[in-house]
Specification:
The chain is α/β, with parallel strands linked by helices. The protein has 16 helices and 14 strands. Helix content is 45%, strand content 16%.
Length: 424
Amino acid sequence: MIRIVAREDPEFAPLVRSLVDRAAGVPESIEAAARDVIRQVRAGGDRAVRELTARFEGRQLDALEIPPAEWRGAVDRIDRAVVRAIERAVERVRAFHEHERYAAFELREGGGTRIGMRVAALGRVGIYVPGGKARYPSTVVMTAVPARVAGVGEIVMTTPGPSLETLAAASLSGVDRVFSIGGAQAVAALAYGTASVPRVDKIVGPGNAYVAAAKRLVFGDTGIDSIAGPTELVIAADASAEPRWVAADLLAQAEHDELAVPVLVAVGRAVAERVAEALAAQLAVLPRRAIAEQALRHQGAILVVETALEAVELVEQLAPEHAELALADARALAARITTAGALFLGNYTPESVGDYMAGPSHVLPTAGSARFASPLGVADFVKRTSIIEYDAATLREQAADIRRLAEVEGLDAHAEAVRIRFPD
């Protein structure tokens, strides 16, 4: 079901290398299909979106946008306990991201010279929320709330076949408009605009391979958050961990998708074997067993090392989207990990808390990009502008140095633009 590989085994190094080298790329056939969808939407607008939705999803759309009264009223049509849970999640996510606000600043030098940075929220953003066969109200919360905290002018949501819970989350999270479209056609509509769908400044949120391919293709014409690959979790566990809990956390990741990446770094073979035994028992009764079993078999692995220090070094090397440290000294060892999208410390912090309630957005870098990328946050929804104002005295003082550097680069007009202001 899942491989157990120790450091001394010949396949250990190649397996680790394959995990490190995972990428968020998509097959050429999917990229070609996404490119064709984008071309059709740019040419045909709403008509093309309707035709593509009928072809790919079997849904006939009279109107692309859901009337506000319909989706805002979803709050009154779902279980009140679910409403309260969404409200608590919204409040916790808002409270966390309030701490991420950028501050503008201005530095005054001698005379009238000023330099600084201005921060402005994006005017309109699109959030893509997967739907159709699944319900993802949590994705609405984790994308819309940071955008609202940032001060975005308008939040436009697209989702295929939205559930009532997803619509209720849109209402509670501050979404302005909702469109019942998905796939590459939704990305294209947001990127270029149609008669019904407004063009946005940036598109955020997870999706399938076609959505990821479309986001890659429209980047430059609009902003995007990232190219998301399959979800992934690496757990480092020692003898202090409860094997059943570790197994449950691995399955929680594996049930997302057949391409999910659930990995355990076990300190000692005994830990590895106890977790593998618990995995087998829990998998047997898991409702989404078929999906989880595929993920465990094809992308899953239990890597056996000798010490907790080796375990965290391996986590650092793998740069996972999610990293759990089920270790006796989790907090101290966490300082050694700088490449994870999110760190979950201790035996009572399963990755599930990050998906729903902890506060930080659960939209995280995947496919090893946590080496250089960050979780979705307020920074993704603002634009910084440098402000520069010189007076004559300051320009005169720096003129010679500016001219020298311009001449070194062979840019004579740059030098002249300074020289002309101070004729001899």
